[in-house]
Design goal:
Length: 371
Amino acid sequence: YFKYCLQLLILTAIIFTACNKPPIQFGQAYIDNSYANIILVDTFSASLSTVFRDSVITSGSSTILVGNYKDPYFGNITSRSFLELQPPPITTLDPKSVYDSLVLILRPNKSFYGDTTLNSQLSVYQLTDPVNFPLYQTSFFNNSNFPVDPVPLGTANALIYPNHTDTVFIRLADATGSTLFNLINAGDYSIQTTNSFISYFKGLQIAPGINGMHANYGFHDTVTMRLFYHVNGVFSTPEKLDFTYYNGDGKQFNQVVSDRSNTPLAAFGGADQEVPSSNTNNTSYLQYITGFIPKIQFPTLRNLLLRTDYLKIIKAELIVTPVNQSFTGLTPLPPQLSAYTTDYTNNIGSPLLLTTSTGYQNGNLALDPIY
Protein backbone atom coordinates (compact mmCIF):
# COMPACT_ATOMS: atom_id res chain seq x y z
CA TYR A 1 0.00 0.00 0.00
CA PHE A 2 2.82 2.38 0.90
CA LYS A 3 4.56 1.62 -2.40
CA TYR A 4 1.46 2.41 -4.47
CA CYS A 5 0.84 5.66 -2.56
CA LEU A 6 4.43 6.77 -3.16
CA GLN A 7 4.11 6.11 -6.90
CA LEU A 8 0.87 8.10 -6.98
CA LEU A 9 2.49 11.07 -5.21
CA ILE A 10 5.48 11.02 -7.57
CA LEU A 11 3.18 10.86 -10.63
CA THR A 12 1.10 13.79 -9.32
CA ALA A 13 4.25 15.86 -8.74
CA ILE A 14 5.43 15.16 -12.29
CA ILE A 15 2.06 16.23 -13.72
CA PHE A 16 1.99 19.48 -11.77
CA THR A 17 5.61 20.20 -12.68
CA ALA A 18 4.92 19.68 -16.37
CA CYS A 19 2.00 22.12 -16.29
CA ASN A 20 3.97 24.84 -14.53
CA LYS A 21 5.34 27.01 -17.40
CA PRO A 22 7.85 29.73 -16.64
CA PRO A 23 6.30 33.21 -17.00
CA ILE A 24 7.65 35.52 -19.74
CA GLN A 25 7.38 39.25 -19.00
CA PHE A 26 7.20 40.84 -22.46
CA GLY A 27 7.70 44.57 -22.70
CA GLN A 28 11.18 44.70 -21.18
CA ALA A 29 14.26 45.57 -23.20
CA TYR A 30 15.73 42.11 -22.64
CA ILE A 31 13.83 38.96 -21.75
CA ASP A 32 15.99 35.98 -20.96
CA ASN A 33 15.59 32.87 -18.83
CA SER A 34 16.89 29.34 -18.81
CA TYR A 35 13.60 27.89 -20.07
CA ALA A 36 12.39 29.86 -23.13
CA ASN A 37 15.48 31.99 -23.95
CA ILE A 38 13.34 34.52 -25.83
CA ILE A 39 15.01 37.92 -26.11
CA LEU A 40 13.29 41.13 -27.21
CA VAL A 41 15.78 43.69 -28.46
CA ASP A 42 14.54 47.18 -29.26
CA THR A 43 17.63 49.20 -28.49
CA PHE A 44 19.30 49.37 -31.91
CA SER A 45 20.10 53.00 -32.59
CA ALA A 46 19.25 54.40 -36.02
CA SER A 47 21.45 56.91 -37.79
CA LEU A 48 19.38 59.10 -40.13
CA SER A 49 20.40 61.42 -42.91
CA THR A 50 18.91 62.98 -46.04
CA VAL A 51 20.46 62.27 -49.41
CA PHE A 52 19.85 64.77 -52.22
CA ARG A 53 20.11 63.48 -55.77
CA ASP A 54 20.33 66.19 -58.41
CA SER A 55 18.37 64.00 -60.84
CA VAL A 56 16.00 61.04 -60.61
CA ILE A 57 14.48 59.02 -63.45
CA THR A 58 10.94 60.09 -64.36
CA SER A 59 10.48 58.37 -67.73
CA GLY A 60 8.48 55.17 -67.96
CA SER A 61 6.22 56.05 -65.03
CA SER A 62 2.90 55.71 -66.95
CA THR A 63 1.81 58.94 -65.24
CA ILE A 64 1.40 62.49 -66.55
CA LEU A 65 2.36 65.06 -63.89
CA VAL A 66 1.24 68.67 -64.28
CA GLY A 67 0.92 71.45 -61.74
CA ASN A 68 2.43 73.88 -59.31
CA TYR A 69 2.41 74.07 -55.51
CA LYS A 70 4.33 76.06 -52.90
CA ASP A 71 5.30 73.70 -50.09
CA PRO A 72 6.67 75.13 -46.81
CA TYR A 73 9.34 72.38 -46.66
CA PHE A 74 10.23 71.59 -50.27
CA GLY A 75 9.63 74.99 -51.86
CA ASN A 76 7.81 75.94 -55.04
CA ILE A 77 7.34 72.68 -56.99
CA THR A 78 6.42 72.82 -60.69
CA SER A 79 5.79 69.78 -62.86
CA ARG A 80 5.45 69.50 -66.65
CA SER A 81 5.00 66.47 -68.87
CA PHE A 82 6.54 65.75 -72.28
CA LEU A 83 4.92 63.18 -74.57
CA GLU A 84 4.51 61.96 -78.13
CA LEU A 85 1.38 61.08 -80.11
CA GLN A 86 0.64 58.61 -82.86
CA PRO A 87 -1.71 59.29 -85.82
CA PRO A 88 -5.16 57.75 -86.22
CA PRO A 89 -5.52 54.66 -88.40
CA ILE A 90 -5.23 55.39 -92.11
CA THR A 91 -8.63 56.39 -93.43
CA THR A 92 -10.17 58.05 -96.47
CA LEU A 93 -12.38 60.96 -95.56
CA ASP A 94 -15.69 61.61 -97.22
CA PRO A 95 -15.33 64.46 -99.76
CA LYS A 96 -18.04 66.37 -97.93
CA SER A 97 -16.08 66.34 -94.63
CA VAL A 98 -15.58 69.67 -92.85
CA TYR A 99 -13.19 70.39 -89.95
CA ASP A 100 -14.73 71.47 -86.62
CA SER A 101 -12.22 71.56 -83.74
CA LEU A 102 -9.15 70.03 -82.05
CA VAL A 103 -9.22 69.11 -78.34
CA LEU A 104 -6.70 67.52 -75.93
CA ILE A 105 -8.31 65.13 -73.43
CA LEU A 106 -6.73 64.37 -70.03
CA ARG A 107 -8.03 61.92 -67.44
CA PRO A 108 -7.05 62.48 -63.77
CA ASN A 109 -5.81 59.39 -61.89
CA LYS A 110 -6.96 60.72 -58.47
CA SER A 111 -3.45 61.56 -57.23
CA PHE A 112 -2.67 65.15 -56.20
CA TYR A 113 -0.36 67.29 -54.08
CA GLY A 114 -1.69 70.68 -53.01
CA ASP A 115 -4.95 72.62 -52.81
CA THR A 116 -7.53 71.17 -55.21
CA THR A 117 -10.30 73.61 -54.24
CA LEU A 118 -8.82 76.44 -56.33
CA ASN A 119 -8.92 76.98 -60.06
CA SER A 120 -6.18 75.50 -62.26
CA GLN A 121 -4.90 76.80 -65.57
CA LEU A 122 -3.27 74.28 -67.90
CA SER A 123 -1.47 75.08 -71.15
CA VAL A 124 -0.36 72.86 -74.02
CA TYR A 125 2.76 73.65 -76.06
CA GLN A 126 4.10 72.02 -79.21
CA LEU A 127 7.70 70.75 -79.11
CA THR A 128 10.10 72.29 -81.63
CA ASP A 129 12.75 69.55 -81.37
CA PRO A 130 12.30 65.77 -81.46
CA VAL A 131 12.53 63.95 -78.12
CA ASN A 132 15.73 61.93 -78.45
CA PHE A 133 17.95 60.34 -75.82
CA PRO A 134 21.45 61.77 -75.45
CA LEU A 135 24.35 59.46 -76.28
CA TYR A 136 24.60 56.44 -73.92
CA GLN A 137 21.36 57.45 -72.17
CA THR A 138 18.15 55.43 -72.10
CA SER A 139 16.11 57.45 -69.58
CA PHE A 140 14.99 60.99 -68.91
CA PHE A 141 15.15 62.70 -65.52
CA ASN A 142 13.23 65.23 -63.47
CA ASN A 143 15.57 67.98 -64.74
CA SER A 144 15.40 67.00 -68.44
CA ASN A 145 13.98 69.57 -70.83
CA PHE A 146 13.17 70.17 -74.51
CA PRO A 147 12.35 73.48 -76.26
CA VAL A 148 8.77 74.36 -77.14
CA ASP A 149 6.99 76.97 -79.22
CA PRO A 150 6.40 79.84 -76.73
CA VAL A 151 2.86 80.39 -78.02
CA PRO A 152 0.60 77.77 -76.43
CA LEU A 153 -1.53 75.55 -78.65
CA GLY A 154 -4.31 75.91 -76.10
CA THR A 155 -5.13 76.90 -72.52
CA ALA A 156 -7.95 75.85 -70.23
CA ASN A 157 -9.17 76.91 -66.79
CA ALA A 158 -10.75 74.17 -64.72
CA LEU A 159 -11.58 73.06 -61.22
CA ILE A 160 -10.05 69.59 -60.92
CA TYR A 161 -11.45 67.47 -58.10
CA PRO A 162 -9.30 64.31 -58.11
CA ASN A 163 -12.03 62.00 -56.82
CA HIS A 164 -14.82 63.38 -59.01
CA THR A 165 -13.41 64.97 -62.17
CA ASP A 166 -13.03 62.23 -64.77
CA THR A 167 -11.97 64.32 -67.81
CA VAL A 168 -10.25 67.63 -68.55
CA PHE A 169 -10.69 69.16 -72.03
CA ILE A 170 -8.24 71.70 -73.50
CA ARG A 171 -9.31 73.34 -76.77
CA LEU A 172 -6.34 73.60 -79.16
CA ALA A 173 -5.61 76.08 -81.96
CA ASP A 174 -7.79 75.72 -85.04
CA ALA A 175 -4.82 76.51 -87.28
CA THR A 176 -3.10 73.32 -86.08
CA GLY A 177 -6.33 71.34 -86.27
CA SER A 178 -7.05 72.46 -89.84
CA THR A 179 -3.51 71.59 -90.93
CA LEU A 180 -3.79 68.07 -89.51
CA PHE A 181 -7.23 67.66 -91.07
CA ASN A 182 -5.89 68.66 -94.50
CA LEU A 183 -2.96 66.23 -94.17
CA ILE A 184 -5.36 63.38 -93.41
CA ASN A 185 -7.70 64.42 -96.19
CA ALA A 186 -4.81 64.47 -98.68
CA GLY A 187 -3.34 61.17 -97.46
CA ASP A 188 -0.01 62.89 -96.80
CA TYR A 189 3.05 60.74 -95.98
CA SER A 190 3.58 62.46 -92.63
CA ILE A 191 0.31 61.03 -91.35
CA GLN A 192 0.85 57.45 -92.57
CA THR A 193 3.00 55.95 -89.77
CA THR A 194 3.92 56.73 -86.18
CA ASN A 195 7.56 57.47 -87.03
CA SER A 196 6.68 59.78 -89.91
CA PHE A 197 4.11 61.62 -87.77
CA ILE A 198 6.54 62.08 -84.84
CA SER A 199 9.10 63.46 -87.31
CA TYR A 200 6.50 66.02 -88.40
CA PHE A 201 4.67 66.64 -85.12
CA LYS A 202 7.44 66.40 -82.50
CA GLY A 203 5.19 66.10 -79.46
CA LEU A 204 3.52 68.07 -76.69
CA GLN A 205 4.39 69.66 -73.38
CA ILE A 206 1.56 69.96 -70.84
CA ALA A 207 2.34 72.59 -68.21
CA PRO A 208 0.78 75.07 -65.76
CA GLY A 209 -0.56 78.16 -67.50
CA ILE A 210 0.57 81.75 -66.95
CA ASN A 211 -1.89 82.15 -64.08
CA GLY A 212 -0.46 79.03 -62.47
CA MET A 213 -1.99 76.22 -60.49
CA HIS A 214 -2.36 75.44 -56.78
CA ALA A 215 -1.67 71.71 -56.88
CA ASN A 216 0.28 69.08 -58.77
CA TYR A 217 -2.03 66.53 -60.43
CA GLY A 218 -1.48 63.06 -61.80
CA PHE A 219 -3.18 62.00 -65.05
CA HIS A 220 -3.46 58.64 -66.76
CA ASP A 221 -1.20 58.12 -69.75
CA THR A 222 -4.29 57.69 -71.95
CA VAL A 223 -3.85 61.19 -73.38
CA THR A 224 -5.87 61.79 -76.56
CA MET A 225 -5.76 64.64 -79.08
CA ARG A 226 -9.19 64.42 -80.74
CA LEU A 227 -10.04 66.02 -84.06
CA PHE A 228 -13.76 66.67 -84.58
CA TYR A 229 -15.28 67.06 -88.02
CA HIS A 230 -18.64 66.53 -89.68
CA VAL A 231 -19.88 65.19 -93.01
CA ASN A 232 -22.41 67.37 -94.83
CA GLY A 233 -25.51 65.77 -96.26
CA VAL A 234 -29.25 65.80 -95.74
CA PHE A 235 -28.32 65.57 -92.09
CA SER A 236 -24.92 66.64 -90.74
CA THR A 237 -23.06 63.60 -89.35
CA PRO A 238 -20.49 64.28 -86.58
CA GLU A 239 -17.23 62.31 -86.77
CA LYS A 240 -13.91 62.25 -84.94
CA LEU A 241 -10.28 61.10 -85.32
CA ASP A 242 -8.01 60.34 -82.36
CA PHE A 243 -4.27 61.00 -82.11
CA THR A 244 -3.42 58.74 -79.18
CA TYR A 245 -0.66 58.61 -76.59
CA TYR A 246 2.53 56.88 -77.75
CA ASN A 247 5.35 55.62 -75.56
CA GLY A 248 6.70 52.69 -77.55
CA ASP A 249 10.14 54.30 -77.44
CA GLY A 250 9.98 55.05 -73.67
CA LYS A 251 10.46 58.79 -74.16
CA GLN A 252 7.53 60.19 -72.19
CA PHE A 253 8.83 61.86 -69.02
CA ASN A 254 7.93 64.38 -66.34
CA GLN A 255 10.01 67.44 -65.52
CA VAL A 256 9.77 68.35 -61.83
CA VAL A 257 11.73 71.36 -60.56
CA SER A 258 11.64 73.12 -57.19
CA ASP A 259 12.72 76.49 -55.88
CA ARG A 260 13.78 75.85 -52.26
CA SER A 261 14.62 79.46 -51.35
CA ASN A 262 13.73 80.35 -47.75
CA THR A 263 12.88 76.75 -46.82
CA PRO A 264 14.55 74.31 -44.37
CA LEU A 265 16.11 72.61 -47.43
CA ALA A 266 17.60 75.75 -49.00
CA ALA A 267 21.12 74.57 -48.11
CA PHE A 268 20.86 71.45 -50.25
CA GLY A 269 22.55 71.71 -53.60
CA GLY A 270 24.91 69.86 -55.86
CA ALA A 271 24.92 66.21 -56.78
CA ASP A 272 24.54 63.39 -54.26
CA GLN A 273 24.81 65.55 -51.17
CA GLU A 274 24.20 63.83 -47.81
CA VAL A 275 23.32 65.79 -44.67
CA PRO A 276 22.90 64.10 -41.26
CA SER A 277 19.62 64.63 -39.43
CA SER A 278 21.49 66.41 -36.62
CA ASN A 279 21.98 69.30 -39.07
CA THR A 280 18.31 69.36 -40.17
CA ASN A 281 16.56 69.64 -36.80
CA ASN A 282 16.67 65.85 -36.17
CA THR A 283 14.54 65.27 -39.25
CA SER A 284 15.02 63.37 -42.48
CA TYR A 285 13.14 64.38 -45.65
CA LEU A 286 11.40 62.27 -48.28
CA GLN A 287 10.25 63.56 -51.66
CA TYR A 288 11.78 61.29 -54.24
CA ILE A 289 10.45 63.14 -57.29
CA THR A 290 12.57 66.20 -56.37
CA GLY A 291 15.57 64.16 -55.25
CA PHE A 292 15.21 63.91 -51.44
CA ILE A 293 15.66 60.42 -49.99
CA PRO A 294 15.96 59.39 -46.30
CA LYS A 295 18.90 57.13 -45.52
CA ILE A 296 18.77 54.91 -42.43
CA GLN A 297 21.75 53.08 -40.99
CA PHE A 298 22.01 50.81 -37.92
CA PRO A 299 25.60 51.05 -36.65
CA THR A 300 25.09 48.59 -33.76
CA LEU A 301 23.13 45.93 -35.65
CA ARG A 302 26.12 43.57 -35.81
CA ASN A 303 26.21 43.43 -32.02
CA LEU A 304 23.82 40.49 -32.36
CA LEU A 305 26.78 38.48 -33.64
CA LEU A 306 28.58 38.98 -30.32
CA ARG A 307 26.18 36.68 -28.49
CA THR A 308 27.83 33.40 -27.59
CA ASP A 309 24.73 31.22 -27.75
CA TYR A 310 22.85 29.90 -30.76
CA LEU A 311 20.84 32.69 -32.36
CA LYS A 312 17.76 32.73 -34.60
CA ILE A 313 16.07 36.00 -35.49
CA ILE A 314 12.30 35.49 -35.40
CA LYS A 315 11.05 38.91 -36.44
CA ALA A 316 12.30 42.40 -37.23
CA GLU A 317 10.27 45.56 -37.82
CA LEU A 318 11.17 49.01 -39.10
CA ILE A 319 8.69 51.63 -37.87
CA VAL A 320 8.87 55.04 -39.57
CA THR A 321 6.93 57.88 -37.95
CA PRO A 322 6.35 61.19 -39.79
CA VAL A 323 7.03 64.45 -37.97
CA ASN A 324 3.85 65.84 -36.44
CA GLN A 325 2.17 68.57 -38.54
CA SER A 326 4.52 67.94 -41.49
CA PHE A 327 1.59 66.57 -43.51
CA THR A 328 -1.96 67.81 -44.12
CA GLY A 329 -4.96 67.02 -46.27
CA LEU A 330 -3.32 69.10 -49.00
CA THR A 331 0.01 67.28 -48.69
CA PRO A 332 -0.98 63.75 -47.66
CA LEU A 333 1.40 60.98 -46.69
CA PRO A 334 2.30 58.37 -49.31
CA PRO A 335 0.18 55.21 -49.06
CA GLN A 336 3.23 52.95 -49.17
CA LEU A 337 7.00 53.06 -48.65
CA SER A 338 9.63 50.73 -50.06
CA ALA A 339 13.10 49.97 -48.72
CA TYR A 340 16.15 49.80 -50.99
CA THR A 341 19.77 49.00 -50.35
CA THR A 342 22.46 51.58 -51.04
CA ASP A 343 26.23 51.76 -51.25
CA TYR A 344 28.69 54.17 -49.69
CA THR A 345 28.29 56.54 -52.66
CA ASN A 346 24.49 56.62 -52.10
CA ASN A 347 23.68 54.84 -55.35
CA ILE A 348 20.31 53.14 -54.92
CA GLY A 349 20.53 49.38 -55.29
CA SER A 350 17.92 46.67 -55.33
CA PRO A 351 14.74 46.63 -53.21
CA LEU A 352 14.65 44.39 -50.14
CA LEU A 353 13.22 41.04 -51.14
CA LEU A 354 10.77 38.93 -49.18
CA THR A 355 12.28 35.63 -48.06
CA THR A 356 9.02 33.73 -47.59
CA SER A 357 7.38 34.60 -50.91
CA THR A 358 7.95 36.46 -54.11
CA GLY A 359 7.84 40.24 -53.99
CA TYR A 360 9.40 43.13 -52.14
CA GLN A 361 9.29 44.41 -48.58
CA ASN A 362 6.90 47.36 -48.44
CA GLY A 363 5.30 49.26 -45.60
CA ASN A 364 1.69 50.39 -45.83
CA LEU A 365 0.48 53.61 -44.25
CA ALA A 366 -1.31 53.15 -40.90
CA LEU A 367 -3.30 56.18 -39.63
CA ASP A 368 -4.30 56.79 -36.03
CA PRO A 369 -6.68 59.80 -36.02
CA ILE A 370 -6.93 59.84 -32.20
CA TYR A 371 -3.31 59.68 -31.05
